[in-house]
Amino acid sequence: MTDVLQDMKGKICIVTGAASGIGKAIAARYVASGAKVAIADIALDKAEAAAKELTDQGPGEAMGIDMDVTSEEAVNSGVAKVVDTWGTVDVLVSNAGVQIVHKLEDFPFDEWKKLLSIHLDGAFLTSKAVIPHMKKQGSGSIIFMGSVHSKEASPLKSAYVTAKHGLLGLARVISKEGGKDGVRANVICPGFVKTPLVEKQIPEQAKDLGISEEEVVSDVMLGETVDTEFTTVEDVAEIAHLFASFKTNALTGQSVVVSHGWYMN
Ligand code: NAD
């Protein structure tokens, strides 16, 4: 551990949407470095199963928390449970997310609002609930799960691209408001990662674009990468570990793209 990074042992972390995919891998990375991790998910059974699996692996521990990130009441009571159990919150990863694809003129308004609510209301509500605890102790790291779609656009993804661009703005405001109290906010922007969220899109996009599922993967998803490789959950978890363990405001208000060179900036 260098002076720049803090030990994650005993750090108290909340990861939303951590019953599956990227969030679960981030929770696993944190528990492997000795942290205490709340796996906050709308799928409580899966969250509890993931928490047990990670606690068995140790050396840290995990607990499942029932949380729909679009509900202010559920977010506040979930965060209160973490604070009652472990005392505070050091790290928030707002990761819960869904994908819904339609051409804009076919996009049902209720589906547009649902997607924006999970990604943006979820980031707002969870940040709002943890920031007072972070300010009280003079430190905290907030991490939003953005996407290459925080920087780029793709057809059929108007709601997702809008939400993921919005997270950059929210992280920058939190950085400016939180700086004097040691509260940092950063965004991770992965390329395509093979999780249930992406597996579901392959047949949907093939249908909407009138191409084969193989072409969706090789051309649409990975065509712009330097090596036609998927990014992995472990790649993303490592960036989440860096953002969580970095000690100072030297790294705040930033976004890191982890995408096999799909997007370069
Ligand atoms: P996933 O479907 O494997 O996991 C998403 C999790 O979020 C699930 O456990 C689900 O139960 C939970 N969730 C959904 N709605 C929720 C709600 N209202 N409240 C609480 N939890 C809820 O998906 P993933 O691929 O691991 O995606 C995680 C995040 O990563 C998302 O924000 C997604 O946009 C982002 N992302 C994914 C990729 C990718 O290629 N998979 C790329 C870039 C960004």
UniProtKB/TrEMBL annotation:
Keyword NADP set for record: no
UniProt record, GO biological process: monocarboxylic acid metabolic process
Keywords on record: Oxidoreductase
Pfam families registered for this protein in UniProt: adh_short
InterPro entries: 3-OHbutyrate_DH, NAD(P)-bd_dom_sf, Sc_DH/Rdtase_CS, SDR, SDR_fam
Keyword DNA-binding: no
PROSITE patterns in alphabetical order: ADH_SHORT
EC code: 1.1.1.100
Enzyme class: oxidoreductase
GO molecular function, one term: 3-oxoacyl-[acyl-carrier-protein] reductase (NADPH) activity
Record-stated family: Belongs to the short-chain dehydrogenases/reductases (SDR) family.
Protein's name according to its UniProt entry: 3-ketoacyl-(Acyl-carrier-protein) reductase
Organism this protein belongs to: Sagittula stellata (strain ATCC 700073 / DSM 11524 / E-37)
